[in-house]
Each structure stands twice: as structure tokens, then as C-alpha cells.
Specification:
alpha/beta, globular, binds pyridoxal-5'-phosphate
């Protein structure tokens, strides 16, 4: 892809024809963006809002201030950034822009994040499954072999949910190089990983899309903000289809506040990765735990002889974990998010109790 193929890459040929032709909705804010003192163009309430902060005006549909800040944060140009109502919105838009229902197909690498398959189902797009290898690595040759001229999206989650491991970026690049479709690298957990980001691959491989979110390391799951980093033409197609005001002023203002406090995120990530490593050791020491998988994320996948009994036992003690035991390659596994030190201790105590013979 680096050379001639990169020059050949044309997202407008990959996208659905109706989307390329589409004339996007033109909002009041699109038709007038200069400075005025009296805004009588958007049917807003002129008096204010019944809240301490005023929200009576529509937000900037282009999210310019926020994109500049995020661009600086991530070291990418604002024109390479799409902002969505969570990265889940970006996943859905990728299907709606690039996948013709009942014609296009996508490739996922299970066990992986469930939303890819759900979004494919909603959009009536065939899902091809190329499982991770026994050692949970990306099967690049398998992906390349499963792709055909109708393959529009390949989802690679790195670090992967629910296995926790980061994928080899050379394999990701090899997949991108051998395909015309988009290779979507979901980096929801990248902040917890010592590995490098695929964001640096977006320029040499314009068919790579990197997804990030403020929901995990940034501690802002309730605000609903996700990012796609991609070729500016791919971004322009996503922008064409998104609802005009997909991020609220409430979310954008809080996010600007958060970006100003980035140091706090760095220290939380450090604390969480420390707690993760401690929790991994404590789990591994328990006789009831068969295996703890290495993690580049803020959760651990652990194997138990009887996962559903463990799950119910924990639930009776008010501790809820995620049962992933029915997923291929995750047989008998529970996924455990890293909690606070005291939450993790309560979990370990409960598992210890489960493992003790009953009196
Ligand atoms: C949690 C998660 C997301 C998050 O999505 P948001 O909509 O941004 O909250 C995306 N991808 C993966 C793999 C996740 O685990």
C-alpha cells in the first residue's frame, strides 16, 4: 500500500454509491457561519435554559475547537479526525458509508468485541469470521485469504477485547497492504498498552482507520465521545452521514476540561496498570484459577474449571464480572475489569472462599 497502491486508494470507489451522491443536510449553522449578534435562524429558545449552564444554542456540527485540541493531543491533523457519540457511532457509520447491504462483507477476528457483528447485522452485511490463532494472534493470512472484492471492512481490535492482548502491527500492515477495503484498528484500550499505536500507519496506509475512545482510560464513558483517525476523504464521508449535532455542548465542554487535565489521566492509567499487574499475580496464586492471560488492557481474562459456578458465587456477593466462557478460544473464561484496590481485594477474598472446601 505504501507506494503505488496508496496512490490508487480511492475511498469514493469503496463507498456506497448513494452515499457518494448524497447531498448532506444543511443546518442553520452550515448556511451561516460568520459572526452576527442576533441569531434568528435555528428556532432556538432566545431566553436561555432552565439549567445553571446555558444550552439553548445548537452545538458546532464540525466540533472545530475540540478537534483542534484532540489533534494536538494525538499528534494528528484535525482533518484526519472524526468525532462520534462513542466509538460505537463510528463503527455504525463505517457500515452505513462503505457496506452495501446484502452485497458487501466484513471480516472479524473472534473472540472479539461484539458490536462489530451487531452493527453488521443491523446493516444486513455478511460477517466472515477468521478466528485468532491458538496463541490469540491475528491470522493475517487467514484474513487475506477470506477477503474478496466485496470486503469493505476488516475489524482488528488491539488490545483485543476480551483477550486483552495487543496485535502485531506488522501483521496489521500486511493485511492493509493486501486489501482494498478498510482495515479498522480498534484501540479502545491502547492507553493501557506498552505497544505502539496504529495511528502512525494511517498516513502510509490510507485504508487504515484507527478508533479511539474517551470511555476507558479517560474515565468518561458517560459522556459518549469516540474518535476515528483516518484519511481525510474517509473522514469527509463519515461526516456526510453523521447526524449534524452528534456531540452535545455538554459533552464537548467537559471533554475540553478533561483535555486540560490530561496529567490526571496519565496518573490514573499508571495506577490502573499497576493494580492490573497486582491483580493478575493474586489471581494466578489462587488454586481455583487455571490460567490468567497476559493483558495490555484494563481487564484480565482468567480461566476457571467451572466458570458459571464462579460467576454465580461472585454475583451472590455483589460482584459482577463478564462471563465470556462460551466464546471460541475463551472457553471457561471470565473477563474481570480492574477495580480499585479494595474492590480487587474483595474479589480475591471471594474467589479464595469459593476455592475452600465447604465446612
Ligand atoms: C468499550 C469499547 C469500545 C467503546 O466504545 P464507546 O462507544 O466509545 O464507549 C469500543 N471498542 C471496544 C473494543 C471496546 O471494548
Amino acid at each position: 500500500m505504501r507506494s503505488e497502491k496508496a496512490a490508487e486508494f480511492d475511498p469514493f470507489k469503496l463507498a456506497r454509491e448513494n452515499i457518494v451522491r448524497l447531498k448532506p443536510y444543511s443546518s442553520a449553522r452550515d448556511e451561516f457561519s460568520g459572526s452576527a449578534r442576533i441569531f434568528l435562524d435555528a428556532n432556538e429558545n432566545p431566553l436561555g435554559s432552565p439549567t445553571s449552564e446555558a444550552f439553548n444554542r445548537y452545538p458546532d456540527p464540525y466540533q472545530r475547537t475540540l478537534k483542534d485540541q484532540i489533534g494536538r493531543l494525538e499528534g494528528v491533523d484535525a482533518e484526519r479526525i472524526f468525532l462520534g457519540n462513542g466509538s460505537d457511532e463510528a463503527i455504525d457509520l463505517l457500515f452505513r458509508v462503505f457496506c452495501e447491504p446484502r452485497t458487501a462483507n466484513c471480516i472479524i477476528c473472534p473472540p472479539t468485541y461484539g458490536m462489530y457483528e451487531v452493527a453488521a447485522g443491523i446493516n444486513d452485511v455478511e460477517v466472515r469470521r477468521v478466528p485468532l490463532s491458538e496463541d490469540l494472534e491475528l491470522d493475517a493470512d487467514g484474513v487475506i485469504g477470506s477477503a474478496d472484492e466485496n470486503t469493505r471492512l476488516v475489524f482488528i481490535c488491539s488490545p483485543n477485547n476480551p483477550t486483552g492482548n495487543a496485535m502485531d502491527l506488522d501483521s496489521v500492515a500486511r493485511v492493509a497492504e493486501s486489501m482494498n477495503g478498510l482495515v479498522v484498528v480498534d484501540e479502545a484500550y491502547i492507553h493501557f498498552s506498552t505497544g505502539t499505536s496504529a495511528a502512525d500507519l494511517v498516513e502510509p496506509f490510507p485504508n487504515i482507520v484507527v478508533l479511539r475512545t474517551f470511555s476507558k482510560a479517560w474515565g468518561l464513558a458517560g459522556l459518549r465521545v469516540g474518535i476515528a483517525i483516518a484519511d481525510p476523504r474517509v473522514i469527509s464521508l463519515l461526516n456526510k452521514v453523521k447526524p449534524p449535532y452528534n456531540l452535545s455542548d455538554a459533552a464537548m465542554n467537559r471533554l475540553l476540561e478533561a483535555i486540560g487535565n490530561e496529567q490526571r489521566v496519565r496518573s490514573m492509567v499508571e495506577e490502573i496498570t499497576g493494580l492490573r499487574d497486582e491483580l493478575a499475580r493474586s489471581l494466578a496464586d489462587l488454586p481455583v484459577v487455571e490460567r490468567v492471560f497476559p493483558s495490555d488492557a484494563n481487564f484480565l481474562l482468567a480461566r476457571f474449571p467451572d466458570p458459571s459456578a464462579v460467576y454465580s458465587f461472585l454475583l451472590e456477593r455483589g460482584i459482577v464480572v463478564r462471563d465470556r466462557s462460551r466464546l471460541e478460544r475463551c472457553e471457561d473464561c471470565l473477563r474481570i475489569s480492574v477495580g480499585t484496590r479494595s474492590e480487587n481485594e474483595k474479589l480475591i477474598d471471594a474467589l479464595d472462599e469459593f476455592g475452600r472446601p465447604m465446612k
